[in-house]
């Protein structure tokens, strides 16, 4: 008995020394200048050798995939690991949003993997259509699974242990929100649960509900002003098209549909990301005062959409989308490929009460897919929804959250169930990813601060529900075979 106690004491002492070494290693790791900032927890790049085609056992090609880790809050050795999914953009670090608050609360390590093809994680040197065949949500989910296993193994190696898993929890907003839900669905043994914020889990061919929600979120007066603006733009487009496009700094958009999509997205972005007043106040005032609505809208587009948000009209130019070189603007081409092959989300004008131009229709989207990527490209949304389940996803331990003003919530799971609770955060400027990012989302809110939401209490209540679910699911996931530490 005495010998057993001595052995246990020595064992615990060994683990303690390993932990001390691990802590000192983390603390001594040099951070490059600017690697952490108010906006990011870290921007230090790490690399992982990823399988190119997870569906071909005979294809042994790999590519380098970028990822990040943040260990400052990690409760060594048994703290959870938070996997933050990056999506259809260049992933430049781990953002300092509400997930950082949760990481601090739960003592979690935070890791984030860049989506294949985006940013610096491109498998090929050219983005020609034939090279994009491995760009899909299915391949991306396997990337996450393989990375999760590899990172756990490397963590075990650092802690000199084997066959031990930390508790993992997955997070994502928007398309990454869908990936978060789908990851829990397809790999339930690899995560204790997921937060699917503004998760667009339903692939939609003709997404007319998107425009309808923009009208509801804008309010009656603003919707009427937007509709009249669209009508006036369509008139001027037929008579003074070049001058009209130039007034929006969009003279290079030769295809009218590209130009009209650009204008529609400007209004969408203001409402979707919690800035409805920046759009609506000047437009409603211009309508009441009898001023030129097109001029008022052009001012909004140039100052807010192109200025504050930094969106270039060129990102809507099909000539630019056909560019196969890897550049800072490659994300637009890559996301359109996923739209044109998997999920569609075609934001077409509804037959009645439309805000956007009726010229932004199904034919416009299909022509874009063909023009940019060639023949034979078509979004099989039925196959996507059959594979994942759409809003009838048959998963468990997934939290769905949506902002009341967000047009994307029409493609998310909004009906709650015991295994998959769903919450809608209701306020005037509660948009896309409000639970994680706060409101509005420009400028960036440190730690996703909710104080600028018109109803901070609404955000706070949902965040408390998130914590309750996470606490329960992580405890249910706890490994019963723990050691003395």
TrEMBL record:
GO cellular component terms listed in the entry, alphabetical order: vacuole
SUPFAM superfamilies named in the record: alpha/beta-Hydrolases (SSF53474)
Keyword Phosphoprotein assigned: no
InterPro entries: AB_hydrolase_fold, Peptidase_S28
Signal sequence bounds: 1-28
Keyword terms, alphabetized: Glycoprotein, Hydrolase, Protease, Signal
Membrane-spanning parts: none
GO biological process: proteolysis
GO molecular function: dipeptidyl-peptidase activity; serine-type exopeptidase activity
Family designation: Belongs to the peptidase S28 family.
UniProt cross-references to PANTHER family, sorted A to Z: PROTEASE S28 PRO-X CARBOXYPEPTIDASE-RELATED (PTHR11010), THYMUS-SPECIFIC SERINE PROTEASE (PTHR11010:SF11)
Protein name: Probable serine protease EDA2 isoform X1
Gene: LOC101495189
């Amino acid at each position: 008995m005495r010998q057993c106690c001595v052995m246990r004491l020595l064992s615990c002492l060994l683990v303690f020394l390993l932990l001390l070494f691990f802590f000192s290693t983390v603390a001594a790791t040099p951070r490059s200048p600017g690697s952490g900032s108010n906006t990011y927890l870290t921007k230090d790049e790490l690399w992982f050798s990823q399988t190119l085609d997870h569906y071909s056992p005979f294809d042994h090609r790999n590519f380098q995939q970028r990822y990040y880790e943040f260990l400052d809050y990690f409760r060594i050795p048994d703290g959870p690991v938070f996997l933050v999914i990056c999506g259809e953009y260049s992933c430049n670090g781990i953002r300092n949003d509400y997930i950082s608050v949760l990481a601090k609360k739960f003592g979690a390590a935070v890791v984030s993997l860049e989506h294949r093809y985006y940013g610096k994680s491109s498998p090929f040197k050219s983005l020609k259509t034939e090279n994009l065949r491995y760009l899909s949500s299915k391949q991306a989910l396997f990337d996450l699974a393989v990375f999760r296993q590899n990172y756990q193994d490397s963590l075990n190696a650092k802690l000199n242990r084997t066959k031990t898993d930390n508790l993992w929890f997955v997070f994502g907003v928007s398309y990454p929100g869908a990936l978060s839900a789908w990851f829990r669905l397809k790999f339930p043994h690899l995560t204790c649960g997921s937060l699917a914020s503004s998760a667009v889990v339903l692939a939609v061919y003709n997404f007319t509900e998107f425009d309808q929600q923009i009208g509801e979120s804008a309010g009656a007066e603003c919707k009427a002003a937007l509709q009249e603006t669209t009508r006036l733009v369509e008139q001027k487009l037929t008579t003074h098209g070049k001058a009209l496009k130039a007034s929006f700094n969009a003279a290079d958009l030769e295809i009218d549909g590209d130009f009209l999509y650009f204008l529609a997205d400007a209004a969408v972005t203001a409402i979707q990301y919690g800035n409805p007043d920046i759009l609506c106040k000047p437009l409603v005032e211009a309508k009441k005062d009898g001023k030129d609505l097109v001029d008022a809208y052009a001012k909004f587009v140039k100052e807010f959409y192109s200025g504050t948000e930094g969106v270039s009209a060129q990102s809507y130019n099909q000539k630019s989308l056909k560019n196969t070189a890897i550049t800072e603007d490659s994300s637009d081409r890559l996301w359109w490929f996923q739209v044109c092959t998997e999920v569609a989300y075609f934001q077409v004008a509804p037959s009645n009460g439309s805000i956007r131009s009726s010229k932004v229709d199904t034919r416009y989207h299909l022509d874009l897919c063909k023009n940019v990527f060639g023949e034979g490209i078509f979004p099989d949304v039925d196959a996507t929804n059959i594979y994942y389940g759409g809003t009838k996803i048959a998963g468990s331990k997934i939290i769905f959250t949506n902002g009341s003003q967000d047009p994307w919530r029409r493609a998310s799971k909004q009906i709650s169930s015991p295994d998959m609770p769903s919450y809608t955060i209701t306020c005037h400027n509660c948009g896309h990813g409000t639970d994680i990012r706060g409101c509005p989302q420009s400028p960036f809110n440190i730690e996703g601060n909710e104080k600028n939401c018109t109803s901070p209490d609404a955000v706070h209540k949902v965040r408390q529900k998130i914590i309750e679910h996470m606490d329960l699911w992580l405890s249910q996931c706890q490994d019963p075979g723990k050691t003395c530490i």
